[in-house]
Amino acid sequence: WAAKVERMGNLNYPPEARRRGLYGELVLTVAIRRDGTIEGIEVIRASGHNVLDDAAQQIVRMSAPFAMLPQTREEVDILHITRTWRFLPGNVLRSQ
After folding, report:
1. Residue 15 CB: number of other CB atoms within 10 A?
2. Exposed (0-12), middle (13-18) or buried (19+): which is 75, by Cβ within 10 Å?
3. First-last CA distance in the chain
4. Under a CB-based contact definition with an 8 Å cutoff, are residues 89 and 17 in contact?
5. What value does the CA radius of gyration of the chain take, rounded to a whole number of Å?
6. What's 56's DSSP letter?
7. In the beta sheet, which residues pair with residue 78?
């Protein structure tokens, strides 16, 4: 999941952030349904730059759909993934 989103983010780094030299960090939670589609996206901690927060959400949407969730005994219907997104100098996106 992380590799796919990072790859999409680096290919689609926000042009406005590049032009304005904006960098920052935000925390995003993505809810993924069992079939790999997106249930929801929530900014948990904003970067202070709407362009970066909006770009992170758009990057997730462009990356979807994701792989189906594996069958488990717990019958997980929605998987919540919370990651820190870093828009770095050199127009690089990293998440952890």
Report:
1. 11
2. exposed
3. 11
4. no
5. 14
6. H
7. 33
